[in-house]
Amino acid sequence: MLFAYIFGGVLLLVLILWYKFAYAPYQVFKKVGLTSPPTVPFFGNSLDIFKLTDTVAIEKWMKIHGKVFGYYFGARAVVAILDLDMLKEITIKQFDNFTERRKGDSGFMYVLRKKANVATGLVHMDKKNWKRVRPITSPTFSAKKMRMMVPLIEKSCHTLDEVFSDISTKGNSTELFRIFGHFTMEVILATAFGCQVNILKGEGNSLTEAAAGIFSGTAITGLSELLCSQIPFSEKLFELFFSNGSKITQDFATLKSVAMEVIEQRRQQSSEASENKNVDFLQLLMEARADDDTGELGPGSKQLTDDEIIALCTTFLLAGYETTSNLLAFTAYLLAMNPDKQEKLIQEIDKYYQDHKESSLYDAAHSVEYLDWVLHESLRVYPPAPRTFRICENTCTINGVTIPAGCYIVIPIQVLHQSVEHWEQPELFRPERFSPNEKESHHPMCYMPFGAGPRNCIGMRFALMEAKMCLMNLLRKYKFERAPDTQVPLKTRIGVTQSPADGIFLKVLLQ
Ligand code: HEM
After folding, report:
1. Which residue of 115, 223, 344, 362 has the fewest C-beta atoms within 10 A of its own C-beta?
2. Closest residue to atom 37 of ligand 1, CA basis
3. Residue 267: inside a domain, yes or no?
4. Tell me, what's the ipTM?
5. Beta carbons of 293 and 287 less than 8 angstroms apart
6. More confident residue, 348 or 308
7. 457 is in an annotated binding site
8. What is the mean pLDDT of residues 275-293?
9. Which letter does DSSP use for residue 38 in this model?
10. Mean pLDDT, rounded, for 393-421
């Protein structure tokens, strides 16, 4: 009798587990007639994603299931969309139903932020808060405001020049991804945290260490999302595991306390003459700040709390540092591998300076058209953000496809950029694709390195300005050359961003 009870109990438990982890989550697409690859209990299709990366897995599934299909990341239902008209509906026309990108109030990063008391930044912000905060933040990225930050970027460009001068005399190949990483870290810490650091010259401090620590922590976000999708109490486990004393929690806390200190200092200096004022994101966001810092601002409020300012600056660091260093490193690689294109760019730069001897770096960087094409083509070949997401708020039907409420939509940027349907010989680096004549012939939705619609990358203008100034300064003097240890073809690592898997080894030569 006892045996029968135990057997019955075990059977019931197995049935419940099977229903919870192997059956119920995987009915979403069947109900609306969307095809999806076969699932593995608990994991859904995530094992393929861990093995291949989502970009490669989507390319593989697309060949079987077409331009719109579903897959499961753990228990999370994700719809992959490669149909350009549908993408336009989702990112632009029906934006109000697809405003959110990812659930900001779950996962490993959320737990860390919560522990360090750092609020959610723009990237993961929910619809209500995003609708209030984005319009306040957007003006800080206007062309006029960006220009005010030029001196901060120029400073790091000059230091980078010294580093390159040193490298070029040695004549051997150098790993450039790390160096560009130091450059973009310096720039973002100066512009977002108001802190002048000299990482390019090998000087670190608690802030640079904290920023680097947070980046190493993002490596486990995929696994944490899988657990959170299946097991609701996973966050509690993370909270226990990453105690207040853990390194990464401390790193978040360091960023917060540095930013808080700078805010306090600036407030004390606020009575000083306005020409002494620092102009950086922190300052611009502070000027949009509420006097009454209760944190209870209404939906129409045009002001930010201190917590929101710090969360935004942390987001700028997370979203802007690695993406821009990837762009610079990939561009250097592509120029070295395509010497004719590099030669043309150098000639265009020389020609510009012959006619404008006294030009500022900013003006030069924005006047040489070919540099713009080169960067756009580099972003097409190796998009630093290889995908982005939206969440479907209410069940809807677009172009005959029903998308259930709560589903994530993945926009596979990298796959779109490499599609033979949209690009002739997509594997070739051909900046001329972005000349005014050719540009018109592309559907706007097949190229979106900075995303699309009202929730696109807020830092696009800043990233392009920084990359242009950096390359313009370097290519006046130096050129990149393939070395015996340059990896061909280049292997990339696709995590939160796409980066060179083993660095970028190139020679840097004086022209
Ligand atoms: C080459 C460099 C960069 C690339 C390729 C890039 C790419 C992207 C992409 C694809 C998105 C998602 C857009 C969407 O879902 O439609 C995004 C969002 C975002 N990016 Fe960038 N980004 C870059 C640099 C920066 C910089 C320098 C900053 C800040 C200073 C920044 C801040 C942000 C923020 C805050 C968001 C979220 C916007 C929102 O949800 O309203 N990014 N970026």
Report:
1. 223
2. 123
3. yes
4. 0.99
5. no
6. 348
7. yes
8. 69
9. P
10. 96
The stretch 210-221 carries a mean pLDDT of 68
Ligand 1 atom with the smallest distance to the CA of 321 is 27
Do β-strands 408-411 and 388-391 pair in parallel, antiparallel, or remain unpaired? antiparallel
State whether the beta carbon of 109 lies less than 6 angstroms from ligand 1: no
208 is a domain residue: yes
Cα gap 92→132, rounded to integer Å = 18
- List CB contacts of 491: < 8 A, sequence separation 6 or more: 500, 501, 502
Distance of CA 93 to the CA centre of its chain: 23
The pLDDT value recorded for residue 120 is 80
> Best of 146, 408, 457, 471 to mutate for ligand 1, by most ligand atoms within 8 A of CB?
457
Neighbours of 446 (CB within 10 A): 17
Note whether residue 457 is domain-resident.
yes
Whether the Cβ atoms of residue 309 and residue 140 lie closer than 8 Å to each other: no
- Domain range spanning residue 210? 75-510
- Asked which of 62-71, 82-91, 214-223, 419-428 is least confident by mean pLDDT, the reply is 214-223
Compare 286 and 33 and report the one with higher pLDDT: 33
Q: Could you give the angle at which helices 247-269 and 306-337 cross, rounded to 10 degrees?
A: 110
Distance from the alpha carbon of residue 457 to the mean position of ligand 1, in angstroms: 3
Task: Kindly state the average pLDDT of the residues 225-250.
Answer: 74
The finding on whether 327 has its CB within 6 A of some atom of ligand 1 is yes
What is the pLDDT averaged over residues 38-43?
93
Owner of token pair 């019955």:
8
Which residue in this structure is represented by tokens 């006892």?
2
The total of structural domains in the chain comes to 1
Asked if 331 and 471 count as a contact pair (C-beta separation under 8 A), the reply is: yes
CA of 416 to the centre of ligand 1 (A): 18
pLDDT of residue 458: 96
Contact 80, 58 (CB under 8 A): yes
CA gap 219, 496 in Å, rounded:
8
Q: Is the pLDDT of residue 1 over 80?
A: no
Among candidate residues 127, 173, 219, the one with its CA nearest the CA of residue 454: 127
Helix (H) or strand (E) holding 401: strand 401-403
Residue 501 to residue 493: CA distance in whole angstroms: 5
Dist. CA 16–CA 23, nearest whole Å: 10
| CATH, residue 415 | 1.10.630.10
Q: Does residue 140's CB lie within 6 angstroms of at least one atom of ligand 1?
A: no
pLDDT of residue 473: 96
Which amino acid, 4? A
Tokens 């580099």 sit on residue: 378
Phi, psi of 109 (to 5 degrees): -65, -35
